[in-house]
């Protein structure tokens, strides 16, 4: 059972999804529901063994194409809506033990193209206002299945974090005639000390205003709003810089590095969002090899993050671990 | 840090959809050369998947699973 409830205090929607309480939680590798079904073994979610990447609807979705009626009716300021939307899972590989960081750049390039296709397909649906592509990696950020995968939520509204970025970007554009994220990227490129990696089409940096010690942002150099604006060269350059960042993350503490990866694109509501700008944000929870950054009183209760580190120093740490990307010809 | 790149050939993306027994869609992506027969099948499954109002699912495989995310 799921439904959308409106929080009048914050002016934002949340989803209840009680059926998700029963979803599979950290099963042993032999019983991974995201591995391809093997002959003679239990049927998993994926019936075919041979593929590059698979996308499918989540069995325990927060949003559905055909949602049930809410269990409660709207009452004044307490608005309730059916939880219409789409929740997809994107499997990066049939191999249970790999990760995006371990995959070759060619595979990440394939994933970029799948992301583009899923974005373009999902935004065709009339009820979809925002397509959010993301990955939760590692138990530290709440992952319940270790098989390498990301997710896509197609929301019936613009989610609040993106809405705030849109509002800030619009105001900056109205005040200056410039794109805020272009300005940020150019400022980081000029300053250099917070740059982690760079290529012809993208820059990766820990921004001046980072909330997490290793909060890398990847921003396009051209003023793009979504995957659908990418050239073929930009698809490859995004794959290359992602490979560099993800591999550097794993080298940092010599372990598979947990993170949340959030891809921010323009909404799919048909409005003009030319003031907005494609970028990817990583929120890694680790602040040292043994310590996590928790969202405590100030962060969770007041919304003010306290970063125990300086972005200039953390960017230098990561930058020293970035290696060139080598493409193999197909 | 600059990248070295080579032109990638034979990297055309193909996708092929199926509908699971419970009506959910699943889309397989492969890259490179492929047999011609899959395309028509895909578009049918994706039309089904793209419909906001789910029509009667046409299960291609009947299965139960213990997923998940």
Give a quick set of tags describing it.
heterodimer, A: 330 residues, alpha+beta, nine-stranded antiparallel sheet, three-stranded antiparallel sheet, 6 helices, globular, B: 69 residues, 1 helix, 2 strands
Question: What's this, in brief?
Answer:
Chain A has six helices and twelve strands. Chain A has 330 residues and is α+β, with helices and mostly antiparallel strands.
Describe this structure in words.
The complex is a heterodimer of chains A (330) and B (69). Chain A is globular, with a radius of gyration of 20 Å. Chain A is built from 6 helices and 12 strands. Chain A is of the alpha+beta class and 330 residues long. In chain A, a hairpin with a 4-residue loop joins strand 1 (2-7) and strand 2. Chain B is of the alpha+beta class. Chain B is 19% helix and 20% strand. Chain B has one helix spanning 38-50, and strands at 13-19, 25-31. Chain B has a two-stranded antiparallel sheet. In chain B, strand 1 (13-19) and strand 2 form a beta hairpin. Chains A and B meet through strand 3, helix 1 and helix 4 of A and strand 1 and strand 2 of B.
